[in-house]
Amino acid sequence: MKAVMIILDQAHYEQITDHLSKLNIRGFTAWKEVYGKGSSDGIPHYGSHAWPSVNNSILTIVEDEKVPMLLKYLKELDSEAANLGLRAFVWNIEEGM
C-alpha cells in the first residue's frame, strides 16, 4: 500500500475526486483552504487580496498497482494548466488497521 498526498489548486478538486472514483480509489481525506507556494516557481496560494488562490490537499491510501495510473493522470492534468500548480507525493505504508 502507498499513501499519495496530492496538493492541488482548488480548481482541480472535482476533476481529481471524480478520477479517484474512476480508478476505484474510494477512500480519501481532503483538506480545503491549504496555503503555500511552490518550491521553485509556483505562485503563492494564500487566499489573500494580493494572492487570492488557495490550495486543497487530498490524502489517499491505495494499492501499489494503482499508483502509476493515478500519477500519470495527475501529470497530464498538471500539464494542461501548469500555472495552477499540482503536486503529488508517495510514501510507503508500513501497516494499518
User: What amount of the residues lies in strands?
Assistant: 25-35%
H/I helix tally:
2
> What is the CATH topology assignment?
Alpha-Beta Plaits
- The count of DSSP E runs of length 2 or more, i.e. the number of strands, is 4
Mean pLDDT reading: 92
What is the H/E order?
EHEEHE
Radius of gyration: 14 Å
Largest sheet: 4 strands, antiparallel
Structurally, the number of domains stands at 1
Identify the strand order in the major beta sheet.
Answer: 2-3-1-4
User: Runs with pLDDT <50, length 5+?
Assistant: none
Helix % is 10-25%
CATH architecture: 2-Layer Sandwich
Give the structural class.
alpha+beta
- Shape label: globular
Alpha-carbon distance between the two ends: 12 Å
CATH class: Alpha Beta
Notes on the protein architecture:
By secondary structure, this protein is of the alpha+beta class. The protein has a single domain (about 1-90), classed as Alpha-Beta Plaits, CATH 3.30.70.120. Helices cover about 25% and strands about 30% of the residues. It contains two helices and four strands, in the order βαββαβ. It has helices at about 15-20, 65-80, and strands at about 1-10, 30-35, 55-60, 85-90. A four-stranded antiparallel sheet has the order 2-3-1-4, covered by helices on one side. The protein starts with a strand and ends in a 5-residue tail after the last strand.
Quick recap of the structure?
The chain has helices at residues 13-22, 67-80, and strands spanning 2-9, 29-34, 55-62, 86-92.
